[in-house]
Amino acid sequence: MSAAVKSYAAVDLGASSGRVMVGRVGPDSLELSEAHRFANRPVRVPEGLRWDVLGLYAGVLEGLRAAGQVDSVGIDSWAVDYGLLDADGALLGNPVHYRDARTEGVAEKVWATVPAGELYAATGLQYAPFNTLYQLTAARSTTQLAQARRLLLMPDLLTYWLTGEQGTELTNASTTQLIDPRTRDWSHDIASRLGIDLDLFAPLRRPGDPAGLLREEVLEETGLSGPVPVTAVGSHDTASAVAAVPASDERFAYICTGTWSLAGLELDAPVLTEESRAANFTNELGLDGTVRYLRNIMGLWLLQECVRAWGDPDLGALLLEASKAPALRSVVDAGDAAFLAPGRMPERIAEACRVSGQPVPESPAEVTRCILDSLALAHRKAVQDAQRLAGHAVDVVYVVGGGTRNALLCQLTADACGLPVVAGPTEAAALGNVLVQARAHGLVGDLAGMRRLLVRTQPLTRYEPRGGTERWRVAQDRLAGD
Known about the structure:
The chain is of the alpha+beta class.
């Protein structure tokens, strides 16, 4: 291997699994391999739904041991959730899961102090019941928050345990609803009005900033030879995934697929209009001054929960049967918060179809087709709405993440949008993570250069739209009740 090639460990934590990937990067090469994959299983305890953060940290250490000697480590994860530390830096209880019920009804209390329109104009974040701002409001009277001296978002918490140094990475901080996307700094006015102490947060870091060195105890446990730096990356996994969209110009939309679908545009400035708020679009921060203007869609969570309820049948066979089922027979709103909680997903989808007067899907194949048609329809609407609200036209849709393995969903998305879909890379978040580390060490250039390297080195699949979009428009009108 050339001396110019360096190795980077990307710790990539999703809502259902974690992985440690090793990226080997040279001036014209980019290879990714999996060192270790582990489950991310939340635990329901008497006080609610919690993350098993100690299990995740153990998985990270095991992954670094399996990765072997690397030149840097970077961590990305899902957004909004956090751990609280006491004055000694010890964790105060297990971090609360964003699907926990504690934020029910909290948004209305927040809006009584800061109306929803003002909140959006200041922070640009769509309404989601689990945004960190609502979680902190729900926790206001708890002993844990009263005792807390530091709040660390999930990737920052794990970075702290690896290095002993505390920071708050910006792309993830932008999902707290406490960041002003214009200044790319804290919104002190919003925090003050809602009684949130911004001193709880560690200083902001940007992607590429140094985040410390692995502690001696970590080196001993993983077998690595120090010093090994930890580099701040786009620590919100969607920020890393969008950095790995293999686009050649700015006229593109993206869909980051997995447990969630995040569908939208990459912009130079936020869209903070009332029309944008009403359409439930969010402005999250990305690399190099970019804004991820997107809508959250429930994603493959719907199918994951159904497959779990059905006893984990063979997914390939299920998708094959679904491809033969009648198209657009029944669709549901894939952004409906009614599907947020786990459990009884097939019955809940059937009930949504029944209430809307559509045929009720009965077999697993029919339910699966309903889900995939509904996701493609939600992708279509998000891409259309984003272009209209931002005044930014696109020629192609890039699908990245785990959903790229679902050829039926990719094809249906092309059909629904009436645009070509380019699918890949599958491990987009890990690749974006690796490339930011490599850039911090001088191996790759700017964001456009990162993307050119991805195009040259990663397998991509193109899906052309079929059959026109009129039937999708009719289905969209039917779902809207028009």
